[in-house]
Amino acid sequence: MLIIWGIAVLMGVLTVVLLLGKGSFLIAGYNTSSKEEKKEYNEKRLCRVMGGGMGVITLMLIGWGVMGEKFPVSVFVIVTIITVILIQVLSSTICRAQVNDGGDQKKETSRDQIYRRASFICSAVILAGVTFVLFTGHVTPVLHEDSLEIQVSYWSDNEVAYRSIKSVAYMEDLQRGSRKGGIGGPTLQAGHFKNAEFGDYMLYSYTSCDSFVVLDTEQGTVVLNGKDKAATKELYEELLEKVGEG
């Protein structure tokens, strides 16, 4: 969390500077533009737009620092992407200078139009892709004759032989702990996790379900669930039967 707080403090300072209409040298792209290109923009307005965007991200980082592991990282990703898109839109519209030195209205060149449209399309595609991954996916336990295969979206599947399972337990309100590697969002949480109860373990779960099947195996602890309590309970009973047969 010290890293998060450090970044938040740094971005907070930069936010204040930019909101004051200063620090244009901090804006990538603008700081390397020629004098003629810079004349096409209202510098103070551009700084304040960038400062406002950085302020939003700074507040999110502060929230992350306060909430720690409970902070919804997926929300941070979505808000950050939306903020970046808004900055691009505002930079290409209200931050454009209205007149040049001769008093004639500045016209957007074909190159500017292509660049602006490409930026919007790229940002929209990224946002759509991230949103799709965050709000879709499944955990599918497949009970074979000799093993349990756990199929999970956006992460590697796992296969556990029944003979390697030492015990099967049903738990509710398990503290998932922190993610060491894998995916985490409003739909799925899967990968390498660590909590106070199991230490390092493997998790394959729907975020909205607080019921779990806990497998103590020769390779370590494996935790999974169904879409809801009923599906998880049914999986638990099926696994008990399979392990008992083994």
TrEMBL record:
Keyword tags: Membrane, Transmembrane, Transmembrane helix
InterPro entries (UniProt xref): Bacterial_PH-related (IPR027783), UCP037672 (IPR017259)
Pfam families tied to this protein: bPH_5, DUF3784
Membrane keyword on record: yes
Residues annotated as transmembrane: 6-28, 49-67, 73-97, 118-139
Annotated ranges, domain Bacterial Pleckstrin homology: 143-237
UniProt KW Cytoplasm keyword: no
Protein name: Bacterial Pleckstrin homology domain-containing protein
